[in-house]
Amino acid sequence: MSATRWSPTARTTVVGVIGDPVAHSLSPLLHNTAFAALGLDWVSVGFHVGSNRGTAAVSGMRVLGIAGLSVTMPHKESVVADCDRLSAVAARLDAVNCLVTEKTSIVGHNTDGAGLLASLARSCGFDAAGARCAVVGAGGAARAVVLALAGAGAEEVVVVNRTSENARRAAALAGAKGRVGVASDIAACDLVVNATPAGMGETALAGSTPSLHFEDLHAGQVVADLVYYPRETPLLAAAREAGATAVGGLGMLVHQAALQLAIWTHEEPPLEELWRAAEAATGE
Ligand code: NAP
User: Fold this and answer.
1) CATH T-level fold of 13-110+253-281
2) Is 177 part of the annotated catalytic residue set?
3) In a designed cystine with 86, which of 49, 91, 204, 249 is the match (CB 3.0 to 4.6 A)?
4) Which of the listed residues 17, 161, 162, 196 should we mutate to test ligand 1's pocket, taking the one with most ligand atoms within 8 A of CB?
5) Taking the domain 113-248, which CATH number applies?
6) Count of Cβ atoms closer than 10 Å to residue 249 Cβ
Protein backbone atom coordinates (compact mmCIF):
# COMPACT_ATOMS: atom_id res chain seq x y z
CA MET A 1 0.00 0.00 0.00
CA SER A 2 1.54 3.34 -0.97
CA ALA A 3 1.52 6.24 1.52
CA THR A 4 -0.60 9.25 0.56
CA ARG A 5 1.67 12.06 -0.63
CA TRP A 6 0.97 15.41 1.03
CA SER A 7 0.52 18.32 -1.34
CA PRO A 8 -0.45 21.93 -0.63
CA THR A 9 -4.00 23.15 -1.19
CA ALA A 10 -5.80 26.51 -0.94
CA ARG A 11 -6.04 25.92 2.83
CA THR A 12 -2.32 25.34 3.38
CA THR A 13 -0.54 27.78 5.72
CA VAL A 14 2.43 29.40 3.96
CA VAL A 15 5.69 30.60 5.56
CA GLY A 16 9.10 31.24 4.02
CA VAL A 17 12.47 32.93 4.11
CA ILE A 18 13.40 36.26 2.50
CA GLY A 19 16.98 37.03 1.54
CA ASP A 20 19.39 37.94 -1.24
CA PRO A 21 20.81 35.46 -2.07
CA VAL A 22 18.31 32.90 -0.83
CA ALA A 23 18.70 29.80 -3.01
CA HIS A 24 21.37 28.38 -0.66
CA SER A 25 19.14 28.75 2.44
CA LEU A 26 18.47 25.64 4.51
CA SER A 27 15.47 27.30 6.20
CA PRO A 28 12.73 25.85 3.92
CA LEU A 29 14.23 22.37 4.35
CA LEU A 30 14.21 22.73 8.15
CA HIS A 31 10.71 24.23 8.24
CA ASN A 32 9.23 21.58 5.91
CA THR A 33 10.96 18.79 7.87
CA ALA A 34 9.25 20.08 11.02
CA PHE A 35 5.85 20.42 9.36
CA ALA A 36 6.03 16.84 8.08
CA ALA A 37 7.11 15.51 11.48
CA LEU A 38 4.32 17.43 13.22
CA GLY A 39 1.70 16.49 10.60
CA LEU A 40 0.92 20.16 9.87
CA ASP A 41 -0.62 21.39 6.62
CA TRP A 42 2.06 24.09 6.32
CA VAL A 43 4.67 24.77 3.63
CA SER A 44 7.84 26.89 3.53
CA VAL A 45 9.52 28.36 0.46
CA GLY A 46 12.39 30.73 -0.32
CA PHE A 47 11.59 34.24 -1.59
CA HIS A 48 14.39 36.06 -3.40
CA VAL A 49 13.95 39.66 -2.22
CA GLY A 50 16.47 42.25 -3.41
CA SER A 51 18.11 44.60 -0.95
CA ASN A 52 15.72 47.54 -1.48
CA ARG A 53 12.54 45.38 -1.54
CA GLY A 54 12.22 44.34 2.14
CA THR A 55 9.37 46.76 2.85
CA ALA A 56 7.47 45.53 -0.22
CA ALA A 57 7.98 41.93 0.92
CA VAL A 58 6.47 42.67 4.35
CA SER A 59 3.49 44.39 2.63
CA GLY A 60 3.14 41.25 0.51
CA MET A 61 3.20 39.14 3.67
CA ARG A 62 0.22 41.13 5.00
CA VAL A 63 -1.74 41.00 1.74
CA LEU A 64 -1.13 37.30 1.06
CA GLY A 65 -1.70 36.17 4.66
CA ILE A 66 1.75 34.60 4.97
CA ALA A 67 1.95 33.29 8.54
CA GLY A 68 5.68 33.80 9.12
CA LEU A 69 8.95 34.72 7.46
CA SER A 70 12.53 33.95 8.37
CA VAL A 71 14.64 37.00 7.58
CA THR A 72 18.21 36.73 6.39
CA MET A 73 20.78 39.07 4.84
CA PRO A 74 20.39 41.85 3.82
CA HIS A 75 17.00 42.49 5.46
CA LYS A 76 17.52 41.83 9.18
CA GLU A 77 17.79 45.52 10.09
CA SER A 78 15.84 47.19 7.30
CA VAL A 79 12.50 45.42 7.92
CA VAL A 80 12.44 46.40 11.61
CA ALA A 81 10.62 49.60 10.60
CA ASP A 82 7.94 47.53 8.83
CA CYS A 83 6.96 45.60 11.99
CA ASP A 84 3.99 46.63 14.13
CA ARG A 85 5.69 45.28 17.27
CA LEU A 86 9.07 43.84 18.26
CA SER A 87 10.10 41.35 20.92
CA ALA A 88 12.32 42.84 23.64
CA VAL A 89 15.41 41.17 22.13
CA ALA A 90 14.67 42.35 18.58
CA ALA A 91 14.06 45.87 19.87
CA ARG A 92 17.39 45.87 21.73
CA LEU A 93 19.27 44.57 18.69
CA ASP A 94 17.32 46.69 16.21
CA ALA A 95 17.35 43.58 14.02
CA VAL A 96 14.96 40.69 13.32
CA ASN A 97 15.46 37.18 11.93
CA CYS A 98 11.80 36.15 12.20
CA LEU A 99 8.43 37.73 11.48
CA VAL A 100 5.11 36.32 12.61
CA THR A 101 1.58 37.36 11.70
CA GLU A 102 -0.52 37.80 14.84
CA LYS A 103 -4.09 38.62 13.83
CA THR A 104 -3.62 41.85 11.84
CA SER A 105 -0.14 42.67 13.20
CA ILE A 106 3.35 41.65 12.16
CA VAL A 107 5.69 41.01 15.10
CA GLY A 108 9.49 40.87 14.74
CA HIS A 109 11.67 38.50 16.77
CA ASN A 110 15.38 37.65 16.88
CA THR A 111 16.24 34.04 17.78
CA ASP A 112 19.95 34.04 16.80
CA GLY A 113 21.40 34.56 20.29
CA ALA A 114 19.02 32.15 22.02
CA GLY A 115 19.79 29.67 19.22
CA LEU A 116 23.50 29.74 20.06
CA LEU A 117 22.85 29.33 23.81
CA ALA A 118 20.59 26.33 23.10
CA SER A 119 23.21 24.83 20.78
CA LEU A 120 25.96 25.20 23.43
CA ALA A 121 23.74 23.65 26.10
CA ARG A 122 22.78 20.71 23.90
CA SER A 123 26.21 19.98 22.44
CA CYS A 124 28.39 20.27 25.56
CA GLY A 125 26.23 21.40 28.49
CA PHE A 126 27.82 24.89 28.44
CA ASP A 127 26.07 27.42 30.70
CA ALA A 128 27.08 31.06 30.27
CA ALA A 129 26.29 31.98 33.89
CA GLY A 130 29.52 33.21 35.49
CA ALA A 131 31.59 32.50 32.36
CA ARG A 132 34.18 34.77 30.77
CA CYS A 133 33.27 34.97 27.08
CA ALA A 134 35.01 36.31 23.99
CA VAL A 135 33.03 37.16 20.87
CA VAL A 136 35.14 37.65 17.73
CA GLY A 137 33.34 39.91 15.24
CA ALA A 138 30.84 42.69 15.81
CA GLY A 139 28.23 42.31 13.06
CA GLY A 140 24.61 41.22 13.35
CA ALA A 141 25.30 37.68 14.58
CA ALA A 142 27.94 38.86 17.08
CA ARG A 143 25.56 41.48 18.50
CA ALA A 144 22.85 38.85 19.03
CA VAL A 145 25.37 36.59 20.78
CA VAL A 146 26.73 39.38 23.02
CA LEU A 147 23.22 40.28 24.19
CA ALA A 148 22.28 36.64 24.80
CA LEU A 149 25.48 35.87 26.77
CA ALA A 150 24.98 38.93 28.98
CA GLY A 151 21.33 37.98 29.47
CA ALA A 152 22.39 34.47 30.50
CA GLY A 153 24.58 35.88 33.30
CA ALA A 154 28.08 35.85 31.75
CA GLU A 155 30.74 37.27 34.06
CA GLU A 156 32.30 39.19 31.17
CA VAL A 157 31.72 39.55 27.42
CA VAL A 158 34.83 40.70 25.54
CA VAL A 159 34.31 41.78 21.93
CA VAL A 160 37.35 41.40 19.67
CA ASN A 161 36.95 42.91 16.21
CA ARG A 162 39.10 44.50 13.53
CA THR A 163 36.96 47.71 13.48
CA SER A 164 36.97 49.17 16.98
CA GLU A 165 33.88 51.38 16.58
CA ASN A 166 31.79 48.31 15.67
CA ALA A 167 33.31 46.46 18.65
CA ARG A 168 32.27 49.29 20.99
CA ARG A 169 28.68 49.22 19.74
CA ALA A 170 28.48 45.44 20.19
CA ALA A 171 30.12 45.43 23.65
CA ALA A 172 27.64 48.08 24.85
CA LEU A 173 24.85 45.51 24.44
CA ALA A 174 26.32 43.64 27.44
CA GLY A 175 26.18 46.76 29.64
CA ALA A 176 28.67 46.73 32.51
CA LYS A 177 29.74 43.16 31.63
CA GLY A 178 30.87 44.15 28.12
CA ARG A 179 34.21 45.53 26.98
CA VAL A 180 36.30 45.82 23.85
CA GLY A 181 39.28 43.47 23.89
CA VAL A 182 42.23 42.37 21.81
CA ALA A 183 43.21 38.97 20.43
CA SER A 184 45.40 38.14 23.44
CA ASP A 185 42.35 38.37 25.77
CA ILE A 186 41.01 35.16 24.24
CA ALA A 187 43.35 32.89 26.21
CA ALA A 188 41.70 33.92 29.50
CA CYS A 189 38.14 33.16 28.32
CA ASP A 190 36.01 30.08 29.03
CA LEU A 191 34.03 30.52 25.79
CA VAL A 192 35.33 31.77 22.44
CA VAL A 193 32.77 32.47 19.68
CA ASN A 194 33.79 33.19 16.09
CA ALA A 195 31.07 35.44 14.66
CA THR A 196 32.99 36.44 11.54
CA PRO A 197 32.72 34.72 8.14
CA ALA A 198 36.39 33.68 8.32
CA GLY A 199 36.49 29.94 7.68
CA MET A 200 33.37 29.94 5.52
CA GLY A 201 33.14 28.17 2.16
CA GLU A 202 35.98 28.85 -0.21
CA THR A 203 37.24 31.75 1.93
CA ALA A 204 38.53 29.44 4.70
CA LEU A 205 41.53 31.06 6.36
CA ALA A 206 44.04 28.62 7.83
CA GLY A 207 45.92 29.72 10.93
CA SER A 208 44.19 32.88 12.10
CA THR A 209 41.86 35.78 11.39
CA PRO A 210 43.06 39.32 12.09
CA SER A 211 41.25 39.06 15.47
CA LEU A 212 41.92 35.51 16.67
CA HIS A 213 45.16 33.52 16.93
CA PHE A 214 44.69 29.77 17.00
CA GLU A 215 47.74 29.26 19.25
CA ASP A 216 45.85 31.02 22.11
CA LEU A 217 43.25 28.20 22.30
CA HIS A 218 43.66 25.60 25.04
CA ALA A 219 42.03 22.72 26.94
CA GLY A 220 39.17 23.74 29.19
CA GLN A 221 37.76 26.25 26.70
CA VAL A 222 34.61 25.88 24.61
CA VAL A 223 35.22 27.21 21.10
CA ALA A 224 32.12 27.86 18.97
CA ASP A 225 32.20 28.74 15.29
CA LEU A 226 29.01 30.26 13.85
CA VAL A 227 30.16 29.16 10.38
CA TYR A 228 28.43 25.89 9.43
CA TYR A 229 29.66 25.35 5.88
CA PRO A 230 32.05 23.65 5.85
CA ARG A 231 31.05 21.81 9.04
CA GLU A 232 34.71 21.39 10.04
CA THR A 233 36.33 24.85 9.88
CA PRO A 234 40.03 25.61 10.45
CA LEU A 235 39.08 27.14 13.83
CA LEU A 236 37.24 24.01 15.00
CA ALA A 237 40.14 21.80 13.90
CA ALA A 238 42.60 24.03 15.80
CA ALA A 239 40.38 24.01 18.90
CA ARG A 240 40.23 20.20 18.92
CA GLU A 241 43.98 20.00 18.34
CA ALA A 242 44.48 22.28 21.40
CA GLY A 243 42.23 20.06 23.55
CA ALA A 244 39.33 22.54 23.66
CA THR A 245 35.68 21.57 23.13
CA ALA A 246 34.68 22.52 19.57
CA VAL A 247 31.08 23.41 18.66
CA GLY A 248 30.13 23.98 15.01
CA GLY A 249 27.60 26.49 13.68
CA LEU A 250 25.04 23.92 12.55
CA GLY A 251 23.62 23.72 16.08
CA MET A 252 22.87 27.44 16.14
CA LEU A 253 21.23 27.16 12.72
CA VAL A 254 19.01 24.30 13.92
CA HIS A 255 18.09 25.91 17.24
CA GLN A 256 17.35 29.41 15.89
CA ALA A 257 15.07 27.73 13.32
CA ALA A 258 13.44 25.59 16.04
CA LEU A 259 12.70 28.72 18.07
CA GLN A 260 11.11 30.36 15.01
CA LEU A 261 9.00 27.25 14.36
CA ALA A 262 7.76 27.38 17.98
CA ILE A 263 6.82 31.07 17.56
CA TRP A 264 4.87 30.31 14.37
CA THR A 265 3.16 27.02 15.24
CA HIS A 266 3.05 27.03 19.09
CA GLU A 267 4.18 23.37 18.81
CA GLU A 268 7.27 21.69 20.30
CA PRO A 269 9.81 21.60 17.43
CA PRO A 270 11.05 18.11 16.45
CA LEU A 271 14.74 18.72 17.23
CA GLU A 272 16.04 15.26 16.29
CA GLU A 273 14.44 15.44 12.83
CA LEU A 274 15.76 18.97 12.34
CA TRP A 275 19.29 17.86 13.25
CA ARG A 276 19.14 14.89 10.88
CA ALA A 277 17.93 17.09 8.00
CA ALA A 278 20.60 19.75 8.65
CA GLU A 279 23.37 17.16 8.90
CA ALA A 280 22.27 15.39 5.72
CA ALA A 281 22.18 18.71 3.82
CA THR A 282 25.67 19.78 4.93
CA GLY A 283 27.35 16.37 5.26
CA GLU A 284 30.85 15.99 3.91
P1 NAP B 1 28.22 40.73 9.35
O2 NAP B 1 27.09 41.50 9.97
O3 NAP B 1 28.66 41.03 7.97
O4 NAP B 1 29.49 40.91 10.35
C5 NAP B 1 30.71 40.29 10.06
C6 NAP B 1 31.73 40.65 11.16
O7 NAP B 1 32.89 39.88 10.89
C8 NAP B 1 32.14 42.10 11.19
O9 NAP B 1 32.31 42.50 12.52
C10 NAP B 1 33.47 42.11 10.44
O11 NAP B 1 34.39 43.05 10.94
C12 NAP B 1 34.01 40.74 10.77
N13 NAP B 1 34.87 40.18 9.69
C14 NAP B 1 34.51 39.94 8.41
N15 NAP B 1 35.51 39.32 7.76
C16 NAP B 1 36.54 39.17 8.66
C17 NAP B 1 37.84 38.63 8.59
N18 NAP B 1 38.33 38.06 7.47
N19 NAP B 1 38.60 38.65 9.70
C20 NAP B 1 38.15 39.21 10.83
N21 NAP B 1 36.92 39.77 10.95
C22 NAP B 1 36.11 39.74 9.88
O23 NAP B 1 27.90 39.17 9.37
P24 NAP B 1 26.96 38.36 10.39
O25 NAP B 1 25.57 38.35 9.89
O26 NAP B 1 27.22 38.86 11.75
O27 NAP B 1 27.51 36.86 10.21
C28 NAP B 1 28.79 36.49 10.67
C29 NAP B 1 28.98 34.99 10.43
O30 NAP B 1 28.06 34.26 11.24
C31 NAP B 1 28.71 34.56 8.98
O32 NAP B 1 29.65 33.56 8.62
C33 NAP B 1 27.31 33.97 9.05
O34 NAP B 1 27.10 32.99 8.05
C35 NAP B 1 27.35 33.33 10.43
N36 NAP B 1 26.01 33.14 11.01
C37 NAP B 1 25.67 31.88 11.38
C38 NAP B 1 24.43 31.65 11.93
C39 NAP B 1 24.08 30.25 12.34
O40 NAP B 1 22.88 29.98 12.57
N41 NAP B 1 25.03 29.34 12.50
C42 NAP B 1 23.54 32.71 12.15
C43 NAP B 1 23.92 34.01 11.76
C44 NAP B 1 25.18 34.22 11.19
P45 NAP B 1 34.23 44.62 10.77
O46 NAP B 1 33.31 45.06 11.86
O47 NAP B 1 35.61 45.11 10.93
O48 NAP B 1 33.66 44.84 9.38
Assistant:
1) Rossmann fold (3.40.50)
2) no
3) 91
4) 196
5) 3.40.50.720
6) 26
